[in-house]
Amino acid sequence: MDTGQVILWTLAGTICSSLISLMPALHIYNVAGILIMLTMGVGTSTLIPMPYVPAFMMAMVVGWAILNTIPALFLGAPDESAIFVVLPGQKYMMQGRGYEAAALTGVGALAGILAMFLASPLFFRTLPKLRNITRPHNFWIMGLIITYMLMSEWPKGSGRQKTGWGRFIDGWKNLAAGLLTFFLSGILGIIILNKPLVNVEFAFQNIMPVFVGLYAIPWVVGNIFSKTEIPPQFICTTADLDYRFWGRGGLAGFIGGMIAAFNPVVTGGIGGFIAGHVTAQRDDRLFIISQGASKTVYYVGGFLMAFIPGLYRTRGGMAWMLRPFFQPHTFEDYWRIMGVIMLSGGLSFLLLLLFSRLVIRVVNKINYRSLSVVTFLLMVGVVYYLFEWVGLGLMTVATAIGLIPVYYHSRRMNCMGVLLLPITLNMGGLGPAVVRLMGLV
Amino acid sequence: MSTTSAPTPTLRDYPAETICPSCGKFVGAYTRCPYCGCEHKHRISIRFFRIFSIVISLGGIFLIWLAARGINAPLIKIKEISPLQSFAYVRIEGEVTRTSTYSDGGVSFVVEDTTGSLQVRAYADTGKMLLKENRVPSAGDRVSVEGTINFREDRGASMIVNVPEKVTIERVVPAAVRIADIGEKVIGRKALIEGRIIATRTFPKGSSVTVSDGTGTIEVVVWDSSRALFGEKEKLLAEGRSVSVQGKVGKYKDTLQIVLDFPGDIKEREHALEAPGAKPGPGANAGVGFQKTDIGDLNRGKTDQPVEITGKVTGLRRSSKGTALELADPTGSVDVFVWDTLRDRMPRASEVMAVGTMLKVRGVVGEYRDKLQVVPRSADQVEEAARPE
Q1: Tell me: the pLDDT tens digits for A211-250?
Q2: What is the 3-state secondary structure (H, E, C) of chain B?
Q3: Any chain B CB within 8 A of the CB of A440?
Q4: Nearest residue, CB atoms, A397 vs list B64, B125, B129
Q5: How far is B251 from chain A (nearest CA, A)?
């Protein structure tokens, strides 16, 4: 394999994903899926030489994991994994410190990448064993994660209603919205995973219309109807940080990201959420660094699992998409991809700083609403092209479910019920009984 | 002198239509707020959208559910499966060529249609349900299977079944054949035989029973992974049982055999040949099914048939895996080959297998290096006989 080509495609993937991450609500997995469909229809790549496809894809994931902070902070369009960065990030931005917040997530991401590199020998030895130990217990582990996620939704009502019933309803409004979102998206997941509704030809992207509806469209719709204006931002040259903080935040994020990367169906948002609770970081700086590390370790580490010899774990959309075309086997494959991660990570951090400055400069000048309309039309167009009216129908229903957390102020993370519920039921051997109950047999 | 002043009106005291619903400032008769620019007329309550989102979610899921109930998985040819169809939920139809079961309860089988073959897998929970509902096909059965396509670059396509009902089987029950009629041409196909188990043996990954029907003998192999499923039917795999067995015919080291995968494929024969007063069980019917023969009457026509011979040991030859005894009676002599594994289980082996001993041997007629031999299959098939008066 030509090292020069590996570097070339790593740079290409990083730049490509950095541009994609600037488009609000456009997810890297959707773009990668379309790219694969356009270039690898017959099992071999026509655009990128096949041996370099993993490097290109990994660079795209790394770039996305680091640069998706920009739309989350400055354009109000976080994806599911960046959701927890927004709250303290917004606070920083309102104080004119948005650039610093972006930089802190970036240094968190670098800490996460460094931790993955240092932990590599541990991955080879412990993860295959850990997988064998946890595999029979995945059902109840997943059940606990779901229970924890649902129970930790807290009441956001004011509690100032005049009657007891009024206060009861006020208290339960958000909790009920969270439960409703989880179970509605879960039922939708059970249906679409057990009955074919979309075109078989592009089945490897069969869940795409639903994900676009649950996450992307509600954000874009929100952005179209709201006005984004950010206060003047200061471009700092130093960060309010020392190496001890960097290490602490990075380690906390690494733990959360690994929980998400290793366990089936757990996403970066859920991993970051658990890590945030486990490490109980009260300092905003620590929190932002840990979330930056967590989402990078989730996206990159999840994909990296496919390259660990002897682990045989496919985690994350990119790994599933690549599996039919490429299967890594050797330590050489692993270290090569680790090199790609480090090269792409360093470059992405520099691009993060560059693009943050650029966005701060232009965000109040560009018509962000028009950009959101273009993104909306683009997503609708792609869904229609691939899955026709059925895809649009699924997307519409998923959008309505995705809007429930927006209108009732519950967590969007509950939309992950679309995968969590059916897969956990299957792991516990209850899937067939539920499918029978729903008359889908 | 005291003065009283009227209370200053607050925004709450003004009529609602004079307050901007967006920024809350007093706008009087304006229909567009001079502060925030919002329209007062034609506004829709956010509450409407909140309720609308729930209604459309519930209604949409109901419609999707209705549509899903009426849709059947598309039938595809195995050759048509491409990497882009990974995760596709489809149906395939074809003939099962191989079935395997795993110790954790998982099941897999290979389906072949006119265009290719595909491995279908059911993980432990589904596999156990398939076994319980007798939905695991045997080799030769025709099946229709719905499942999710899984594609890997290094292993190609496979199908995962999650719901037992998605496996429908058209059982192929072959007509019973004589063991003597089973030949090379039926390899890979299903055969049904009826006969008596005349011997049993075990090997590292399974066990086998030798079935004789009077026309010949054949070994029926049961792998350990399958044997775990047999439960009560395990009793049928004992020497002396009269059974009917169906399974796929295969060949191992130039010898034909039948592979028994599932407990449903072995049954006790309704009209079993029982020895008078004998009880089923190991060794109980050891003599039944073996034809008493003079050594001189043995010939190539009796190959694979179970026989019982009596004679005197006139010679011994050791080989790497067993001992050949030359057994002679007044009509002739023949070699009796005793495997070391069988000898190890024989009580008083060194005394019994000695020159000059009178032996009664039950075994199957075979041929080795162009010479006939009788091969006993279990330790109690070699026993000392009373000397003729």
Answers
A1: 889 888 888 887 777 665 677 778 887 777 788 888 888 8
A2: CCCCCCCCCCHHHCCHHHECCCCCCECCCCCECCCCCCECCCCCCHHHHHHHHHHHHHHHHHHHHHHHHHCCCCECCHHHCCHHHCCCEEEEEEEEEEEEECCCCCEEEEEECCCCEEEEEECHHHHHHHHHCCCCCCCCCEEEEEEEEEEECCCEEEEECCCHHHEEEECCCCCECCHHHCCHHHCCCEEEEEEEEEEEEEECCEEEEEEECCCCEEEEEEEHHHHCCCHHHHHHHCCCCEEEEEEEEEEECCEEEEECCCHHHEEECCCCCCCCCCCCCCCCCCCCCCEECCHHHCCHHHCCCEEEEEEEEEEEEECCCEEEEEEEECCEEEEEEEEHHHHCCCCCHHHHCCCCCEEEEEEEEEEECCEEEEECCCHHHEEECCCCC
A3: yes
A4: B64
A5: 34
